[in-house]
Amino acid sequence: xxxxxxxxxxxxxxxxxxxxxxxxxxxxxxxxxxxxxxxxxxxxxxxxxxxxxxxxxxxxxxxxxxxxxxxxxx
Length: 74
What we know:
1 helix
């Protein structure tokens, strides 16, 4: 899943926030995280871990990249 399906060095998060972002986050937490915790799915977050609110999830089926592992652009 992508929070914003637009790739550009100059992309800025829209203001106000898009409803699709909230829907994607809700789906992740309401459907995908419970499936991962039940061993039915594997989640790998390569970027925006904080935005996806996954940084507090500790589980073998929820992998979050940090530091130099991420694909963040600064």
